[in-house]
Amino acid sequence: MSAIRVSGVLLWxxxxxxxxxxxxxxxxVVAGLLVxxxxxxxxxxxxxxxxxxxxxxxxxxxxxxxxxxxxxxKLVEAxxxxxxxILTPHNRINVGVVAVPLRTESTTAAMIVANVIxxxxxxITIESLGSPPTLYVNVMHLHDVERVRRDLLHxxxxxxxxxxxxxxxxxxxxxxxx
Amino acid sequence: xxxxAGIFLxxxxxxxxxxxxxxxxFHDTFSRMHAAAKAPALGLLCIxxxxxxxxxxxxxxxVVVLIVVLQLIAGPVSAHLLGRSVxxxxxxDLQGPDELLGVDDEARD
Amino acid sequence: xxxxxxxxxxxxxxxxxxxxxxMLIGPNLADRVIAIDGLLATxxxxxxxxxxxxxxxxxxxxxxxxxxxxxxxxxxxxRYIEQRGG
Lengths: 178, 109, 86
Prior knowledge:
The complex is a heterotrimer of chains A (178), B (109) and C (86).
Chain A: H1 3-21, H2 26-43, H3 61-87, E1 96-101, H4 107-119, E2 123-129, E3 134-139, H5 145-163, H6 166-177
Antiparallel strand pairs in A: 1-3, 2-3
Helix pairs in contact in A: 1-2, 3-5, 4-5
Chain B: H1 2-25, H2 29-54, H3 58-89
Helix pairs in contact in B: 1-2, 2-3
Chain C: H1 2-25, H2 29-54, H3 60-84
Helix pairs in contact in C: 1-2, 2-3
């Protein structure tokens, strides 16, 4: 529970309080600090799930930027695909479930990957079992199972490159090269 | 600048309408879930951008960013929860291969 | 600008009607929950368009609260579907 993290969270809570009151005055800032401190005292400082030193998330800026751009692009592509699917009469819907075995043990990575999978065209994560977690993904146009699996594993690679901890990167590198 | 904001608003509203059309037109529960999870997320993103460009104050920007991030994270999560319960309960007929079918039922809870 | 806002409102109105149609028709509970989720998103969009057109940011706090409550509600309904069936 480092001082930097606590003060960072407190600062964010104060910014939030002042924004919700739409009025930047000294009274609001002080009230925000007090309320923020009270909330932190009651609820505790939020921790990322894997919080050891070796498992702490390391954010690489370039990879993160690429990842965010990738997610936004996929989100737009998903909706354009949806529009095309709605407007054209022929129906290529072939709903199925694909198992995607992840290769890292990190819960944060699994969470991010599952979320991004839901935002990409034609897939929704519906189940996650085991450790290392295996995601089961519901796919709308399932014509080539292996290709879908490879595409989704590629998302995992991108997210570990952007946010992964040192342990996660090692695990991914080991599995990929084997 | 207001015209750009207006265009963003229309694009966002168009995506939300796309979600509506998808939800009505698809014949399968899972496909409707696809439409309702992705399109409103992007629609709210665009409308948020338009609102941010139109109301150019800092507090509004912070709140809009918060709303968009919340929708991008909470939207897929609720889609996932729904998909999970629909799969466990109703088990609708899937046309394609189903790789979750044989997995141990006791490992689920 | 007024014309653009009006077009946005019309699109949202069509979306709301479509979601309500699915809510009334949808054969099982899951379809109705999906429709209600979409309807909530439409309401959020409407309030944001209103904030943009009147240049007042106060109503955006409502959007935040409705989004949070909607998410919790959908989660609760999903749990209900899992335990009692659709």
